[in-house]
Amino acid sequence: MTPAQRRTLAAIEAELGRLIRYDDESIVHDAWIRQRYDGGFAASYVPARSAAVRTAWHEAGHAVAALAVGARFSSASIRAGGSSAGRVHSVRGGGELSFVIDAAGQVAERLRDWTLPESDEELRGLLAGWRADGGDARRFLAGLRGRFGDDEAAAWRYSVQLLTPLRLRIRQLARGLLVYPRFLPYEVAAALADLPAVAASSRGSGQAGREAAGGDR
User: CA torsion, points 18, 24, 29, 30, in degrees to nearest 10?
Assistant: First the structure.
């Protein structure tokens, strides 16, 4: 980690410590609220604040999943623009578990408020709707075949099982994204999530950046 990154991490941790008693919507930096409102991505400050929180959990899910399966990325951001409400940039690696990274945004959103599907019927409905949405869903379907064939439900449940114990790490990184008005470099994101960073020399095969379209992948 560079000296500049250490300063960024220290500033974020200090701000999170100051705001520890506040809920997620109360700590959203004004820059993220104004950016969504001024850019026409939200009709007022209230939905802009809610959208920022949803996106922060989504992107933190992708980032924590990447760290958990040994992948790297360049940075994470919740800046809205075009069809993207946020992005984990230039994800590389993950191997046969790369599908977990693709599922992680959706999983993290549901871990936030504990709305994960409970029944097989609920899960089938979720996967059917997500499949039509493109983006992460397409990569998820392509990536799971190496380990689960075409069994989307089994791959989803595997992702949930892997990520649920990491919920507090996802939350911590999401809160870091919310209080800091710029992108978070990989090394800072890893430190906030308290997960080991992967050495740059161990980057694997390419994976497209994961982006959130309106928080709904």
Answer: -120
pTM (predicted TM-score): 0.91
β-sheet with 86-89: strand ranges across: 184-185, 75-77, 86-89, 210-212
Taking the C-alpha atoms of residue 102 and residue 108, their distance in angstroms, rounded to an integer, is 11
Q: What is the pLDDT of residues 163-179, one digit of tens each?
A: 999 999 999 999 999 99
Of the candidates 48, 66, 141, 62, the residue with the CA atom closest to the CA atom of residue 108? 62
How far apart CA 64 and CA 190 sit, in angstroms, is 8
Asked whether 75 and 63 are in contact (CB, 8 A), the reply is no
**Would you list the DSSP string of 146-204?**
HHHTT-HHHHHHHHHHHHGGGHHHHHHHHHHHHH-SS-EEHHHHHHHHT-PPPPGGG--
Tens digit of each residue's pLDDT (9 = 90 or more) over 118-142: 999 999 999 988 877 768 888 898 8
Q: Is the separation of the CB atoms in 6 and 186 below 8 Å?
A: no
Q: How is residue 135 written in tokens? A: 């983006």
Residue 77: phi, psi to the nearest 5? -150, 155
Gyration radius (Cα) of the chain, Å: 16
The string of pLDDT tens digits covering residues 178-188 is 999 999 999 99
> What DSSP string runs through 56-75?
HHHHHHHHHHHHHTT-B-SE
Q: Where are the domains of the chain?
A: 3-197
Strand positions, DSSP E, 7-89: 75-77, 86-89
